[in-house]
């Protein structure tokens, strides 16, 4: 039995590659947002209750209830600063964060995306200067809203990327069963031509065919990829092509997409030589941030410190950082000593 050294894991330089900005809001901040905007503000107890759910659909509803309290650009600036502070406390050097632009465009007509991005950029710059952790943004579309709405998200990313180089990519989340990746093939080609990186949530709650579809439309990174474990040919392709996987073990357990930690494929993927990274997804909603995730995975699957170092190195290599920064971080990881 391996007993993780939490402080060693905290000091290990690492990147967070699958994190939703709206999903970083802790109950205390949600209560503060509610006091700003709700006629009958949430108590802390009521705010905490919103983070309790029983399945994946329940999680989506909880995410919706939390994100509804983001009603002004200043709200987004606040949660950005708080997110970066908490990332820095975990030893995260760089994060690539999804923003639910599809939700803003459909449900928040009082907000302009350009104003929201200006706000998160103010928060990012201030927090990076204060805490040292850097952030890139990925514009996330809701796949079950359809290709037309996704097109608006991706084209807004291409437009604002000219002003804000921290916008690096696009993705599709939401209900895979109602929004197959193939529907977005042309839009992904358009986004790639605009210089955007391509990510896809795939194989989280549906069979492995969803992952094949994501690969076929050009995904550079795959979020979750849980169901790949059931397709030996797909595992071979993922290993051969070294397509990075953004794994979220605690998230998969809390949403019910994986029945038990013993059945999670993280160890199998690692031993098969897949490009595995560890991520937290929506930390307050799942009760685990990235440091917790590293600790849990090491303890439950008995990875050595050297193997945990490999997870950290994978997170750097799979990031969209420029080569010079990657080399610098990889050297830090290599020189980071076991205790």
UniProtKB/TrEMBL annotation:
Keywords: Hydrolase, Metal-binding, Zinc
Highest taxon listed in the record's lineage: Bacteria
Transmembrane among keywords: no
Entry keyword annotation includes Repeat: no
EC number: 3.5.4.4
Residues in Adenosine deaminase domain copies: 13-335
GO molecular function, one term: hydrolase activity
InterPro entries for the chain: A_deaminase_dom, Ado/ade_deaminase, Metal_Hydrolase
Listed transmembrane segments: none
SUPFAM superfamilies found in the cross-reference section: Metallo-dependent hydrolases
Cofactor(s), names only, from the UniProt record: Zn(2+)
Family: Belongs to the metallo-dependent hydrolases superfamily. Adenosine and AMP deaminases family.
Name listed for the protein in its UniProt record: Adenosine deaminase
Species, as recorded: Terriglobus aquaticus
């Amino acid at each position: 039995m391996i007993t993780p050294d939490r402080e060693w894991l905290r000091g290990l330089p690492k990147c967070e590659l699958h994190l939703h900005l709206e999903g970083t809001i802790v109950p205390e901040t949600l209560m503060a947002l509610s006091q700003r905007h709700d006629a009958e503000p949430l108590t802390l107890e009521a705010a905490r209750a919103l983070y309790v759910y029983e399945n994946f659909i329940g999680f989506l509803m909880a995410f919706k209830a939390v994100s509804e309290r983001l009603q002004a650009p200043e709200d987004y600036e606040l949660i950005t600063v708080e997110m970066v502070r908490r990332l820095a406390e975990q030893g995260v050097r760089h994060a690539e964060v999804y923003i639910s632009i599809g939700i803003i465009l459909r449900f928040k007509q009082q907000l302009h995306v350009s104003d929201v991005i200006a706000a998160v950029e103010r928060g990012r710059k201030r927090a990076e200067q204060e805490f040292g952790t850097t952030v890139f943004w990925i514009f996330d579309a809701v796949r079950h809203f359809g290709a037309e709405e996704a097109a608006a998200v991706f084209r807004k990313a291409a437009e604002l990327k000219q002003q804000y180089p921290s916008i690096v990519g696009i993705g599709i989340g939401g209900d895979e069963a109602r929004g197959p990746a193939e529907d977005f093939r042309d839009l992904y080609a358009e986004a790639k031509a605009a210089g955007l990186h391509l990510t896809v949530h795939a194989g989280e709650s549906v069979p492995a065919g969803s992952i094949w579809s994501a690969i076929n439309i050009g995904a550079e990174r795959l979020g979750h990829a849980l169901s790949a474990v059931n397709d030996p040919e797909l595992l071979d392709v993922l290993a051969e092509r070294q397509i990075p996987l953004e794994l979220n073990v605690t998230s998969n357990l809390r949403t019910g997409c994986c029945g038990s930690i013993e059945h999670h494929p993280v160890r199998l993927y690692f031993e098969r030589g897949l490009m595995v990274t560890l991520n937290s997804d929506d930390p307050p909603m799942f009760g685990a941030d990235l440091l917790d995730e590293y600790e849990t995975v090491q303890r439950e699957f008995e990875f050595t410190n050297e193997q945990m170092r490999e997870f950290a190195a994978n997170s750097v290599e799979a990031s969209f950082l420029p080569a010079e920064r990657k080399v610098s971080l990889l050297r830090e990881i290599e020189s980071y000593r076991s205790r």
